[in-house]
Each structure stands twice: as structure tokens, then as C-alpha cells.
Amino acid sequence: MKGPLIKPLVLTGGVYVVLKFVLPLFTAPLPSSLIFLYIALTVTGVLIFTTLSEQAMEGVFGPVFRFLSGEGVGGAMQTARLGLLVLFPLLVGWQTYSSTVPSDHPPAENRTIHPAPPGEFAGLSNPIPNTPENVMAGKGYYAAYCSPCHGAKFDGKGPAAGGFSPPPANFVDPGTIAMLQESYLFWRIKTGGVGLSTEGMPWKSAMPRWEVELKDEQIWKIIMGEYDGAHQKPRTWE
Amino acid sequence: MKAILKVFFLFSFLGLFWLVPSWAQQTPLTPSVDYRDVPWIGSRNVIWIIAQVHLVLGGFVLGVPIFAWICEIIGVLTKDQRYDRMAKEFTNLLTAAFEMTAMLGATFLFLLIALYPKLMGYLADIFLPTYYVYVLLFIGSTTTLYLYWSGFESMKGRKGVHLFLGFLLNVFALLIVVVPNSWATFQASPVVLPGGVGVWEKAWAAMWNPTWWPVNIHRLIANVVLGGYICGAYAGIKYLMAQNAEERMHYDWMGYVGNFIGVFGLLPLPFAGYWLMREIYQYNQAMGITLMGGFLSWLFILQAMLIGVLFLGANYYFWLGITYRIPGAEVKYKKPILAMLVVLLLCLGVWMTPHSLVASLEEARKMGGTHHPLLGVFGVMSAKMTVANLMILVTFMSFIMYWRAGKVETAAWAKLAKSVMNALLALAGVAVIVLGVWGYFVPAIVRINYFSTSQVLIVLFVLVTFTPLTAALLKSAKTTTEMVWGRMPARAGYVLVLNAVTVILLMTMMGYARSASRGHWHIYGVLEDTSSYAYSPALGEAGFFMALNTFVVLALVAFIFWIVSSRAVRHPAFSTQYFFLAPFLFWAVSLFDKPAGSAPRVSEGPKYFRRAVATAFGLLIAFTYIANQVPQTISLPPKKVEFDPLQIKTQADLAKVGQGIFFGKGQCALCHSIGPSESARCPDLKGIGAKLTREFIYESLTQPQAYIYQDYRHEGVPKEYPARMPVINKNPIGLTNNEIFSVIAFLQQMSGEPISVHPSEITQPAQTAAAVPIAHAP
What we know:
The complex is a heterodimer of chains A (238) and B (778). With 238 residues, chain A is an all-alpha fold.
């Protein structure tokens, strides 16, 4: 267990440690699906680089094959080898068991963030002229109706935000309203969580159905206020 | 020549089958059923398999002539006999592959007519003239194919004529893709057809739908890639099974050329795909979102993985080539290879990071949603475009490095040229990254129209300046180490196989994406799928079918290769429609030889073949597994709203039902908007209920041509709207009087007008008397 084999092992281990333990010191921890993806990429890279020439391949895979086949392995290594040969099936068995045993953890989910809007909303355009007064009015409505959850800074961190999972959308993030047309926001505000399309269920959204309380005109003004406050521009096609 | 005639007639006859729908159309019998089902497997799945296998094999049949023709040209230009030999070797495949594809096509057609009569009737009504054109193209393609194939020997002295034949063949082949593409793209992005025009104008208008040319270009390039990679896989397997040094050299070289052509086709492919996606978004925002952000978005993560395999595979093959074919180059190129590998992997990491992550509840809580605060930025288009461009640059540099390996430039300006190239490359890389990062801070439209296109142009600029520059440099270069063919390790052969499998899998996957983006529509927004298969399956099931289809295609291609390279087809009769029988006949004959006792062949070949098959299987199984690991959701068609007169008590009820019909069954919103809209194809209906009386609205719906409102939105002479209003109480929409009344109620309510339709006017089921269409209110 020395020579060229060490480097790839250290590299893969290092990447894992960084992703799993170092990164969370600075930001939110990564989900295990993403860590798995990055480790898989690292291993692929190692495999590609070490199989580029016979010498490199022998250096890395030679010891592994010899260890596994027991060729010229003796003493403590032989014990370790037998131990591994016994442990590995147990490990696989445990993995299978733990992935099928009933548990109280909800399964991982794949939430479609931006489902397609229904036909009656696609293609609408904002009928309210974009004047400073209207934007101000929109920000006023935003402060009254939206900011408790979506935050006064449009960053999804309002006082009530902590109570929701998934949390309220962060409009400052370039991946949210900057990717969408105004008609999309109009749909989301007007019909709320219950109005989401059947496509890409399951839905979890606590967004209220604002059509009950607000007029269309108010909603359009809120949209203008939101874009202005979050320093984003709605997506357009021309 | 006699054989050619026979085949010609055979194909003319086969071509006649394409007329079948037109016969069905000429006899104005409405089909007795809308759908028929196939027990156990289901009609949708049967069509799925046959259509996809037919289309990918079609891509192969159309990709190989392009490939062979390019090889022949290179052969003429470089006077390298190997290219000519390879072009011939591949053209030999075509006759068998063509038959196979035509048979599958006929099966596909019969199945469609049998299982989906409603859809086929509708399409035949629009596209009838193109069916005739298609038959002619088919005959033209067949004829030129056989002339080109047989001409390899007979036109040896007249290369110009032969190349021209090859050109004609490719023109026919291209048109054969282009015409059916118009049918398929019309299903995804139908345009409003003008009424009262001739059949030819109607078909022509339907062909020019927004996604027709983007799909054509995308398919054309993808076919070249497929041709290249299948050539590579064939060479890879032949290389592994080679018996002597000469064969090893030839197939090693052929694998290199296949990979080269595949990679060069691959480089512009993302740009073509981007254009197609853009057109789809512009055509229908909802469809674009379904694909990229909604139900189908996971397909694109899987696509990223497969393209990652392809890019890594192509580069790995180049790098293996440097280390094995050029003795002593290994040490020299180790560092640049490592650097390129790291860049590729980083790019892939970004590309594969999804916008919304698969996370358990706990993980999602910690991240604050399924969107990681830091890595979430990789999920958007700006990041993906940037890394795709960088990966293309790296792959291109791999090729340049391979090209220059083992040679020393002697030109006086070599040093200058090299430093210019290095500076240019660094500059291009930095520019692509800067544009990518900047893309987060500008409106989407600026990013799409200017930044992304600039990134593409920068990369293309590098491609078109480096290639001739390097060629010029190497013209005078001194070769220090001669390239040695036939020394590649076995894994190079497996990589070639893996790449071919990946390309086919990608084609089956994107074919599914294109088809599934229509949702529960046969023809988007026009003809609804009302069968029990209108839903879209979960990714795991879809992934299984993609893998299955890929496997079937591979098996058929392997079968074609086997037949062509076995002794059987040396007999002229087996080069035509009987070729399927050949292996069985020879097997039957060989039964009698057995007792004589032949020595068992000692060959490593079968072992390598089994391993190559295992490689292919491994990838397909891994793909299916990953597709099943993603949380599974299916997409159901929206619930049907039945018009129930008993439920209608008040005028508000009526308007509510009318709203559902306006946006649903009536399909009004497909063209009309309520309020001004950029994409409206006909008049804005805002306030229409206040402007028009109910009698006028009723007449507009049932006799739409009686009075036509023109487009006054722009300066100058008012013009007609592009869309032509269909008669609403006739097929295909066919609203009943009750439904029309409720729509009128909705239009009035929407315009703030008192509703003048009363629930008592609704015909109750018990009443059999015909309703008076218009109540003449005093």
C-alpha cells in the first residue's frame, strides 16, 4: 500500500472531507446526492488519469489486484485481505438492508421549482404602466402583504419565513424571478400554492391565494415593485 | 445492373405504402375508432420502441453516406488509399441498413395507422402532398444509393462522377430527413393553417413551423456524429478482434478517424441544441418551462451526465492516442493532460449540478430549500452555457495537442504563431468565463441575445483560426517521432464502443424529450390525446425504454455489420432484400459440416466481443439505475371538465363553466389573449363582452368568416391577423350550444357587463327539442 496508489486515495478522501466537513463551515451543508455526484466525478478522473499508460496503471491497480487475489501476500496483509473479503459482502448487505428498512425519514424529493404555467396565464403582459408612482404603490402593497414572509429586503428572510419549509422564495437570487416572465409571477401570486399545476407533483407551497384579497391591478403593481426592489429585470423575449 | 433494377422496383413498391394514409383520406370515411390498443405492452410503448429504433437507424443510414462521402473526398485530396477503402467499407453497410430501416419504417407506419387512426387521419389531411414528395425522395435516394455503392468499383477512373453521385445521395438523404421532420415538428409546434387554400399551400404552411429548421439542423449534425461514432465502435470491435498486425493498424486508424469526425460533429451540436430550445421557448413558454424547468428538467441532468461521458471518452481516446501511438510522448504531455482533465471535470461538476437538488427533508431544511445557497448558482443557464463552451475548447485543444504531438515546427514564424495561439486561447477562456459570470447580473434577454451568442462566437473563432494555423505550421514541421498505428490498448476499443452507445442513448433520450414536451397533446394545443396513454411516465420507466431502444438499435447495427462482413453477402443475391435469410441459410448448411469435426478456433476475438457487449450493457444498466434513483413522478393530463347542466343554478355558475371552456376545450386562449399580448395571433378579447352583443358573439363563433376584424395595432393599413378562426360548433373543437352560451356568459362577466344569458336557456338533458340558438331579447 504505497507508491502511486496513495495519491488517488488521498485525493478522493480529501475531496470528500472538503465537501462534507470543510464546506459547511462557510455555507449550508451539501445534500448527499451532490456529494455522491462530485465523488463519482473525482473517481472517474482518477480512473482516466491512471489508465493513460501501462506504467501508471500497473502502479495503481497492480497492488490492488495482488492484494485481492492474495498473490504474494502474507502475514498481516493476508489477515487484512481475509477480513476485507468477509466485510465487503456484509457491507453490501447492510447497505441493502438500510435502504429498504422502513424508516420515519421522509424520502428525498425532487421538487419542480418552476412548473409550466397554465395556458390562461402564459402570454399575459403587465397592463399597468411602469411609472414611479405605480412601482411605489407596488412596494407599498408588497410591504403590507408579502414582506412578512419574503422579507423587506426581497431576500426571502421575512420575520415569518422560518416557519415554512420550503422557505419563501428569495427574489434577489438570479435563479428566481429574473428567470421568469411577469405573467408567471402573476399566476403564482394570484392562485397561490393551491393553484399550482398537476405537473411535477408533489407540491408544497404555503403561498396564499391572493386573488381572494387583491385585485389584479394590485398584483401587477406588486410584481413591478418586486422587480424594482430586488434589482432584477423580468425575462422578456424581444 | 439487373439487381439494381430489382431493388429499385422493390423500393418503389415499398414507397407506395406511404400512400396508404392518403387513400384513407380520399375515401371520406371517418375512422370507426380513435385508438386501438395492443394487449400487455400497450400501443404507446409499441410505437415508442418502433419509432425510436426506426429513427435512430434512419439517422445511421443518413449519417453514413455523409461520413463515407467526406472520407472519399479526403481520400481524393490526400491521395491516401485508406480513406477510399474505408468509404467503400461503410457504403457496403448501407444496402442492408437501408432495407432494415425501410422495413421498420413500414412497420411503424402500419402500427400508427392501426393504433392511432385519429391522429393519422388528421395529419394526412394536412400533409397529403408531402407524402407524394416523400415517395419520390425515397426512390431518388434508393437509386443514388445503389449507384453510389456499385460505382465504387465501376467508376474508379471517374471519381468526379462518383463524388457527384455521393453528393446527390446526400441531398436526397437530407431531404428525406427534412420532410418527415416537418410532420413531427408540426405536432410539437403547430402553426395556424389558413383555410380555403389549396392542399399544397396548406402543407407548405404547416411545414414552416417554428421548430422545423432548428430540428433539421440539429438532426443533420447529430447524424454525422452518429455516423462517426458508429464507425469508431465498429473499428474498435474489429481492432479488438483483429488477427494480424495489418488489420490492427487499419482498424486503429479507422477508430481514430471515426472519433475525429464524431468529435467535430459534437462541437457545434450544443449550439444547435441551444437554438432549438430558444425557438421552443419563443413558440410556447409553457412548453419551454416543462422541458427546462418543469417535469422534464431531470432529463437534461441525465443528458449532462451522458454528454460528460462522451466528452471524457473522446478526450480519453485522444490522450490514449498520444501516449500509445507516439512513443516517448507520455512524459512530455502528462502535465497538460492532467490540467485538461481537471478543467473538464470541474466543468462537468458545474454542468451536472441541478437547479433544484434531490435532498431529504433534513438536508433541505439545512440548505433552506432545495436550492443550495452557494452551489445553487451553478443550476442556471448562464453557468451551463459557460462550462459547455469551456469543455468544447478543452476538447478542441486535446485534438490540437494530438495533432502536433511528435512533430517539431520548423517555420520561422512558428514561435510567434504559437505564442499568439496561446494568448488567444487564454483570452478566449477568460472571456467566456467573464461573460458567464456577468450573465448573472444582466436581464435574461441581454444574456440570451448577446452574452451566450458571444460565448459561442468566441469559441467558434478559436476553432476556425486554430485549425488552419496549425495546419500551416505542421506543413513544414519535422516529424521527430513517427506515429505508430496498432499499438492502442484494449480499453481504447471499449471507449469507442462506449461513446457509440452514449450517442445512441442520447438520441433516444432527446427523442423522448421532444415527444414528451407535447404533454397530453398529439398536436400541441390542437389535437388532444384522449387515450389512456395521455400521461407522461416517470423518469425510471422512460429511462428503461430509452435503454431498451438503444439496445435494440445496437443489436440491429451489430447484426448488419455481422452479415455484411460474413461470407454470406459476397453472393450478390444477399445484397438485396434476402439478406436477412443469409445467416440462417449458412447456419443450416453448416450443420452438415459439423460431424466432419473442425478444430476449435483459437481466437481471443469472442472474448473481446463479449467484453465490448458487457461495456455497452454496463452503461445502459447504470443509466437505467440512475434514472430510477431520481424521485419518480408521472405527469397526468389535466382533469376533464364535463358540462353538467344540472349543476348550473346561477349566471355566475355559467360564467365559471365558460371560463373553463374558454381556456380548455374551446382552445380560445391558444390564439386569443385577454389584454394586450406580444404573441397574440388574433384579436385581443379584453372587454369584448361589453363591445359586442351576445348575438354578434354567437355569430362570430359559429360563422367566423361573416365579418372579419382586422389588425389595427400597427401604423399604416390594417392587415388581417395571421390566424384564421375555426367554426367553433364544428369539429375539431365542436362546442355545443350550451357550452357556447357559457363562454358568452364568461366573456360578458370578464368585461364587467351584466350577463345576459340565463341558466334557463341551457338545454337540460331531458329536453330533446332543439335549442333556439339566439334568444331575440327585446
